[in-house]
Amino acid sequence: MSAIRDVHERTVQAPAEAVGALLDRLSAEGDPIFPTPAWEPMRFDRPLALGAVGGHGPVRYSVSAYEPGRHVRFTFAAPDNGFHEMTVEPLGPERCVVRHVLEQDLRGGKFLLWLTVVKAVHGTVVEEVFDNIERVAAGGVERPVRWSPWVRLLNRLAWGRAVAVEIPESARLIRTAIDRPGYQDAYRMELLPGMPRDPDSWTGILRDAFPVVAREGGELLMNVDTAGVQARASILVDERYVTLSTVAKADTVRGRLYWGVVRRVHPLMARAMVRRTHRRLALAAPSAGERATAVRTVASVTSVTSVSSGGPGRGQRG
Q: Going along the chain, which residue ranges are E strands?
């Protein structure tokens, strides 16, 4: 058995109270510091509090200690052991240090996995948390973390997979696109915080190679006819998922021959295209800190505009 203790810390040019307020928003809606959508979000079964159970990705833990604005400890769920925690300590009125500590006893294969895989990913995620804290609390990041080629490869390999589902009831366009199709399928992935909700952003799933023939709500319908096969594809973006659906019908000899071959590889291709685009859009999305800063800027501009135009802000001041 090998004991590990992994420590990351950073001095932030901002009051401890400001950084602590960000710490308290971990896992909340609009969490400003956990680095999603590049990594899976931190989620719990309730707001951050003692006893909350959850984790991020495959890592499961519960809140075992919590001092709002100062310290939170997460104890790993069995069969794992140990904990990881974050602490904010003031260094004066306008400076503080934020620290992340992980302690575990690992043996055999788990220790080898830590050395070869987990340590690199863990360190990158923690440093991205610090980056977001600096973005929001201090107004910018002096030296943002950069992914190593190894971390980028691990992120790619660990990225989620599209799962097969029934064509959603809300995908009304594709449900009526072809009369009595001979083939249909659908594959979906969960949308992570910060990913685009506009279906036009997702047409790259099909490499923007096919015309959009209809739009309705969060659904786009595309004509994907080819080689004697009448086919339509739908991209549906709802509150939780992006779904790629396909319907096809081959009424000619040429079409049936072509589709007889293509339908064998179509599921693999569809899953791969959804996954590739999902990851590309996630990595291109603004960071949690950038999103939080943008929201705060918009709110500030709206407030100033309201006051200067004699709106509610001026009226409330009497």
A: 2-12, 42-44, 53-56, 59-67, 71-76, 83-92, 95-106, 163-164, 183-190, 212-216, 219-223, 229-237, 241-250
User: What's residue 45's pLDDT?
Assistant: 97
- Cα–Cα dist 271/268, whole Å: 5
The residue count for the chain: 318
Taking the C-alpha atoms of residue 305 and residue 318, their distance in angstroms, rounded to an integer, is 17
What pLDDT shows up at residue 316?
37
Which residues have a Cβ under 8 Å from the Cβ of 34 and sit 6 or more positions away?
26, 27, 41, 42, 56, 129, 132, 288
Collapsed DSSP state (helix, strand, coil) of residue 45: coil
pTM: 0.90
Q: In whole angstroms, what is the distance from residue 218 CA to residue 239 CA?
A: 9
Residue type, 96: C
Q: How distant, in Å, are the alpha carbons of 11, 19, 46, 137, 274 from that of 23?
A: 15, 6, 16, 11, 33
The region, left, alpha or beta by phi > 0 then psi within -120 to 50, assigned to residue 107 is: beta
What's the average pLDDT block by block, 10 residues per block, for the chain (318 residues)? 92 98 96 97 97 96 98 96 98 97 95 96 98 97 95 98 97 96 97 96 91 95 93 96 97 90 94 97 97 75 48 37
What residues does 190 pair with on adjacent strands?
241
Q: What is the DSSP string of 178-197?
A: SSS-SEEEEEEEEPPTT---
DSSP helix/strand/coil, 95:
strand
Neighbours of 87 (CB within 10 A): 17
How far CA 91 is from CA of 97, 143, 227, in Å, comes to: 7, 20, 69
Question: Of the candidates 218, 221, 254, 251, which has an alpha carbon nearest to the alpha carbon of residue 236?
Answer: 218
Cα–Cα distance for residue pair 299/242, rounded to 1 Å = 29
